[in-house]
Amino acid sequence: MPERESEERRAADETTDPQTTLSEGTVYKKLQGFYCVDTGGNTVLCTISSTLRKNLEYPVAAPWSLRPRVVAVHQIRTVDPVAIGDKVRFTDSGDDTGMIVEVLPRRNSLVRRAAGRKALQQVIVVNVDHVVVVFAAARPAPNWEALDRYLAAAESTGLPARVVITKMDLVDGDAVAEEVDTYRRAGYPVLLTSAVRGVGIEPFREALRGRASVIAGPSGVGKSSLLNAIQPGLGLRVGEVSKLTNKGMHTTSHLEMFPLDGGGSVVDTPGMREFGLWDVEPQEIEGLFPEMRPYLGRCRFRLDCSHTHEPGCAVKEAVAAGAISERRYLSCLTMRAG
Ligand SMILES: Nc1nc2c(ncn2[C@@H]2O[C@H](COP(=O)(O)OP(=O)(O)OP(=O)(O)O)[C@@H](O)[C@H]2O)c(=O)[nH]1
Ligand SMILES: [Mg+2]
Ligand SMILES: [Zn+2]
To answer: Residue 107 — pLDDT band, cuts 50, 70, 90?
Structure first.
């Protein structure tokens, strides 16, 4: 953000009358430094107060600087103190613009480790009821380990998750049957859909009705297409999958929350190839696999067991007995190894 603009906003903050009554609303979209706040049908375009912004200026300021400044817009995004789904209080200028001065406590937040070398937390969305993880049966071919990571990330934030395997028109049902069974036995509801053929659309609509949902999954799997199928009025942009790499072209480029006709809301997200876990210790990872939980602490070496080479490992016994899928078990070990 240009320095001058930042100074102007700071000046505006200082003239804010403490007696001004504050309005409340929900952030549903971000536009380059502005936040679209919904107040129940009306949109107010807000900036954020300097007090809130300090949270995002300090981490990127030179450590010796007495007057911290934003050094790069890129970094603003990674440490943005306001997220999609946040309930906020703002001063209302009366012309559909305002300034956010407070973020109300969050019920939960879906976070990941931002892509890149630096350990930075990226808040995807907050205050949702569940995560709907969408993968394609083909084009792009499903990477089940990547799906496991999405599910583990949801578990780590305490959010319920469900799985949707779409583009079922491209494969024989048997192609994914084994994995569908694995996820169902692990406790995840699984829906099979095709936006092209209109298969599974009604159950998908039903799963979202009346709840605050976030749709996550890699680029090109058909997330936006599914949302258009349940609510054509959304008119979300849909993009081709590269013929060369069979990967999506990142058609959805920003997060946005939409109200649903049947009640509830949904956040469409840009495809994310990886969903890196944030703030999870390696020994906590098996606890993010619901089907493993009954066996944890039952190994001979209790919580010190790595479930690889130890004798008397309850997890390995459960894998051998078929109670835990071997593929998910290996996926868990891979995740533990980092
Ligand atoms: N055959 C088939 N193609 C589909 C289906 N759903 C979506 N597609 C196609 O898959 C491509 C990607 O669809 P999108 O809805 O843009 O995918 P997305 O997951 O939103 O992708 P990003 O926004 O990049 O994350 C488009 O060419 C769609 O027409 C389906 O059920 N069957
Ligand atoms: Mg999309
Ligand atoms: Zn063990």
So the answer is: very high
Instruction: Return residue ranges of the chain for CATH 1.10.40.50.
Output: 282-336
- The pLDDT, as a whole number, for residue 20 is 64
> What CATH number has the domain spanning 3-103?
2.40.50.140
**Placement of tokens 């890196």 in the chain:** 276
pLDDT for residue 135 is more than 80: yes
Q: Give the domain 282-336 fold.
A: Ribonucleotide Reductase Protein R1; domain 1 (1.10.40)
d(CA 288, ligand 3 centre) in Å: 15
Tokens 């993968």 locate to 135
Q: What topology is assigned to 128-268 in CATH?
A: Rossmann fold (3.40.50)
Query: Counting ligands in written order, which one lies closest to the CA of residue 239?
Result: 1
Q: Spell out the alpha helix ranges (H) of the chain.
A: 3-14, 50-57, 73-78, 144-156, 174-186, 201-208, 223-230, 314-320, 326-336
Q: Which atom of ligand 1 is nearest to the CA of 170?
A: 1
- pTM: predicted TM-score of the whole model, two decimal places: 0.88
Mutation choice for ligand 1 from 124, 238, 275, CB with most ligand atoms inside 8 A: 238
